[in-house]
Amino acid sequence: MGDDELAELRRRKLEQLQRQQVEQQRGLEDEIEKQRRQESQIQLILMKILEPEARERLNNIKLTKPDFAKAIEQQLIMLAQSGRLKQKITDAQLKELLKQLVPSRKDFHITRK
After folding, report:
1. Which of 32, 39, 46, 94 could staple 54 via S-S, CB 3.0–4.6 A?
2. In this predicted structure, what is the pLDDT of residue 89?
3. pLDDT tens-digit map of 80-89
4. Residue 69: alpha-carbon gap to chain centroid
5. Could you tell me the end-to-end alpha-carbon distance of the chain, in angstroms, rounded to an integer?
6. CATH for 3-95, among 1.20.1250.20, 1.10.8.140, 1.20.910.10, 1.10.340.30?
């Protein structure tokens, strides 16, 4: 194999790697854009079904417990899509929902006999 053939193989391999890298980058950008669109749709739905105070409470929960907040958002959206919500959820109603979802903590006291 001559030097010219070896150089040509290296050039082709480099081009192939560069194309793969560009395709991977595009795929990542597409995935990020898809996630942004989904998050935007979720926020629009929540604006329609939650009063501003309830939305603010949910955003505060999202700061401390993002997974829990995501689960609540999904439940609220399912309720709205199933037609079970007749009006916007107030902050008080959201508090009640949260109380039902979060098990109450029990205080344990250790006593000696």
Report:
1. 94
2. 94
3. 899 888 899 9
4. 9
5. 89
6. 1.10.8.140
